[in-house]
Design brief:
With 226 residues, the chain is mostly helical. It is 61% helix and 0% strand. The chain is built from nine helices and no strands. α1 crosses α8, α2 runs antiparallel to α3 and α3 packs across α6. It is globular.
Length: 226
């Protein structure tokens, strides 16, 4: 595993702005970072959202300019959707006759939903690709979710060390080293993140505040009106 690196405040501020943009997106669906955000989605709507967000993630994965931070948040979003889908799949199976032959989970996801997926997004969500997708595999998905819950979504901006799409392939030893490094550096990561947030707030304040020349111009205009 490579040496654990903690980004500086300026780099973190840039990445946190990326996260802010991701969380404000609504096309094709609003990104989720917790189960509560999925409370209004179920059934076919949830399937469609998973399939279309998966297609968008796969497109991002093929785009060199997309940051590791964005990929981290996109795959975590997919893991939460897939876990919720699997809960619905199990409920569906429990309601059926025990003698019935059930289609696999990755096939069930597409039932009644693929027709509603935008045509340009269907290529990345074939049955074959879904079968191999890590977010559909329970043990892999749970490993990613448990990791993020333990270290928080804030840690996902440390993209030099954290690459959720490669997390399942890490050996137990390397996974333990990464987990330990995050725990050991928790305080400094939190400190740099807070400084990055302060920097963002400061920059935002400068953008909102009128410049000195603008203020003088407004005062002169007001005086002239009197």
């Amino acid at each position: 595993m490579p040496t654990f690196q903690i980004p500086g405040e300026d780099v973190l501020a840039t990445r946190m702005n990326i996260v802010k943009q991701l969380l404000s997106e609504t096309t094709p669906h609003k990104m989720v970072v917790d189960d509560e955000s999925l409370s209004t989605l179920n059934g076919v709507e949830l399937k469609v959202s998973f399939l279309e967000m998966l297609s968008k993630y796969q497109n991002a994965l093929r785009t060199p300019s997309v940051s590791g931070t964005e990929l981290n948040f996109r795959i975590y979003d997919l893991c939460l959707r897939a876990r919720r889908l699997e809960e619905e799949y199990k409920a569906y199976r429990d309601r059926q006759d025990n003698n019935k032959v059930f289609c696999p989970f990755h096939v069930w996801i597409r039932i009644d939903a693929i027709e509603r997926v935008e045509p340009e997004m269907r290529l990345g969500v074939s049955k074959k690709k879904l079968l191999k997708d890590p977010t559909v595999v329970t043990t892999v998905r749970n490993r990613i979710i448990d990791f993020v819950v333990k270290h928080s979504t804030d840690a996902l901006v440390c993209e030099e060390a954290i690459k959720l799409n490669k997390l399942p392939a890490l050996s137990e030893r390397n996974f333990a080293q990464l987990d330990s490094a995050l725990c050991d550096n928790k305080a400094i990561i939190a400190e740099r993140l807070e400084k990055a947030r302060a920097s963002i707030r400061s920059d935002h304040g400068k953008e909102q505040a009128p410049s000195q020349d603008q203020g003088q111009g407004q005062a002169t205009t007001a005086g002239a009106k009197k």
